Amino acid sequence: MLNSIEIMKQHPVNMITMDTKILTYKSGKKGVRYLFECKDPESKAPKYIQFSDHIIAPRKSSHFHIFMGNDSQQSLLNEMENWPTYYPYQLSSEEVVEEMMSH
Question: From the UniProt record, which GO molecular function terms apply (predicted)?
């Protein structure tokens, strides 16, 4: 996985929305991933980005995940071990830990 924060700070790019995938995990829970792709061959930003907040229907999210890579959308969809997670900056360290433990 690429360091998403540093890459996007250093290489801003326009991404094209490609698709939305609803996934069913081994646990039986469902989640959604929004797929984006960079079409600029000169860009140093990741070619593929996926955004997930676990929420299929519109509502407020407590956190979200961003997956990035250059291989393929499918390789990112297959990623089930490494979930780069982002929380609102207002949360304290204790609140983030509590969120993570209940996730």
Answer: zinc ion binding
Contact 70, 47 (CB under 8 A): yes
Residues 6 or more apart whose Cβ sits within 8 Å of residue 72: 48
Domains and CATH numbers, the chain: 4-102 (2.40.128.20)
Q: What is the pTM of this model?
A: 0.76
Per-residue pLDDT tens digits for 72-89: 999 999 998 888 888 888
Instruction: For 28-40, write each residue's pLDDT tens digit.
Output: 988 899 999 998 8
Q: Which residues are 51's β-sheet partners?
A: 34, 66
Quick one: which of 27, 78, 88 has its CA closest to 53? Answer: 88
Cα radius of gyration rounded to whole Å, the chain: 14
